[in-house]
Task: inverse folding
């Protein structure tokens, strides 16, 4: 991807996914290994479809912020 915030077309490499998601490559591979992120093999390459990347992001736990104590 030429720009870190550019919307990829169809699919992206694991490295590009990590940049897109703002996580490390090790974390990206861990998410794939644990079944949280769907990836597919195309020949020797592992790619992540953009739809699967968006789904992964949508299913991440929401940050809970404790309410202010009065």
Result:
């Amino acid at each position: 991807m030429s720009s870190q915030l550019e919307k990829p077309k169809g699919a992206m490499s694991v490295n590009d996914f990590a940049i897109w998601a703002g996580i490390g490559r090790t974390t990206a591979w861990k998410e794939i290994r644990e079944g949280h992120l769907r990836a597919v093999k195309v020949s020797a390459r592992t790619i992540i479809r953009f739809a699967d990347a968006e789904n992964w992001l949508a299913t991440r736990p929401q940050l809970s912020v404790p309410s202010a104590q009065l």
Observations:
- The chain has a mean pLDDT of 88.
